[in-house]
Amino acid sequence: MTIPNLSAACIPFLQAVAFICACLNMLAAGSVFLFGLYSFYFTHHLGYTQVQISTTIALGEAGMYGVGPICGFMADRVGPRLTSLIAGFLFIFGYCLLSLSYSTGVERVKQGQSPTHFLLMALCLGLVGAGCSASYMAAYTAVAKNSKQIRGIAIAILTLISQQFFMIKIKEQLSIWQETLELDVARFLFFLGIAGGLINGLAAFGLKIVPEPRTIYLGQDVQFTQDVEVVQTSSSYNSQQSGPIRHNRDERTPLLQDDQIQDISTNAHSSPNHIRRHEVIAVSGKDFFLDKDAQAFFATKMFFSGVGLMIIYSITAMVDAVARSELSYPSPTSHTRIADDKSPIASIRAANVALISISSYIGRMISVFGSDIAIRRYGAHRIYFIPAATVVMALAQIVGMFASLNWFYLCSILAGLAYGGFFGVANTIVAELWGTEVCGQNW
After folding, report:
1. pTM of the full predicted structure?
2. Can you tell me where the transmembrane regions are (predicted)?
3. Distance of alpha carbon 194 from alpha carbon 89, whole angstroms
């Protein structure tokens, strides 16, 4: 017979609330990908050069990725609620200051004065990047620690939500290229700041680490709680070696000896309601950096993301280069000329960007659901999907080197599939190999 904990009835509701809040947080974190929408106006209205735009982007990404370990450490130690609240303040301050600096710069240009210095804009974007990182880590750690059975799918849903802005970017970019839309950048940035602040502020109330329900088994003379199998090292997935089973002793049975616990455990395994849970000892800090598996994973992630982002961020330039060589298409002299282009090249650019985004969605779904099915049915591990994604990315590079303009779509599709497939399982692998307790700072 089993007696559920009295608070167990509230746990599914609290987990659902935490997941919804995490989805909202991830939606706010994805707003950083919208920079491509208004970067054109920085050039057109403020007169920034391409070098200044690239510097602004670089400092913004430095703010996002540079504070990532700090945000992850904070989410692990103080919890996702405070991390989300800090992210809300960073969103409001960063976006509103960016909006004010942009509008001030436009007015100064109209008066014949120099615009706002691009380093100030870069600093504002860096604050936004830090807010996005904090919002992401708050959502990621909450879901990784709350979702035990469907962790891969839950984390993948979060990542897909953060990529929703890619679809918005495609739609808006198509309208901009067709000159049917004039974006009010100042109000748009102000809206992003207020929306991001409100989302993270509200999520701070619901992003809770919900404890697992405990089930107490009653025998004739003794009681015990569910057992926990502790995996000694992160590399045990490869060596198939695990540590001894550790049994949690309930406070109602303080005098049970080890042999008694073993007998109880044997009887409990025959219960249809018995829950067997595998936990990995958390590896972080110096031990994480010295772990050979972590070093190999980090190197793979670094090289893979570098190649993937190189193709994703340069896809329009690659299309222009192929078009100039095949169609004698004139080299653009300014960003404005690219945006105002009426030739079919504009639609080809947009189609390639759309294919990368859509195929990235598909790649994530394939890797997430495919890895879960492989784990449940065949006992495989999620890490097996990384070599497959690497092969697909290599094919994308080969196609990009030799493909004509009509076949260049294949390069975009393969790059999106590989990039989405890799990052669909990468963050889940970190949580499963090196422990959910420190998954934020490790990721």
Report:
1. 0.62
2. 12-41, 53-75, 82-105, 117-138, 150-168, 188-207, 302-323, 343-362, 383-401, 407-426
3. 10
In tens, the pLDDT along 165-205 reads 555 555 555 554 444 456 688 888 898 899 889 989 888 88
Average pLDDT (398-415) is 82
Could you give the 3-state DSSP secondary structure of residue 123?
helix
Q: How far apart are CA 319 and CA 324, in angstroms?
A: 9
Task: Assess contact for 162 and 30: CB atoms under 8 A.
Answer: yes
How many Å apart are CA 443 and CA 434, to the nearest integer? 10
CA angle 211, 136, 388 (to 5 degrees): 95
* CA gap 106, 116 in Å, rounded: 8
Q: Distance between CA atoms of 350 and 343, rounded to whole angstroms?
A: 12
- Cα distances from 21 to residues 132, 145, 409, in angstroms, run 15, 14, 37
CA 348 and chain centroid, separation = 28
User: Which domains does the chain carry?
Assistant: 7-174+183-213 (1.20.1250.20), 279-327+342-442 (no CATH)
pLDDT per residue over 95-139, tens digit each? 999 999 989 988 888 888 888 888 888 888 889 988 988 888 888
Cβ atoms 348, 406 nearer than 8 A: no
Q: 189: which residues sit within 8 A by CB, 6+ positions away?
A: 38, 95, 96, 98, 99, 102
Looking at this protein, which amino acid is placed at residue 373? I
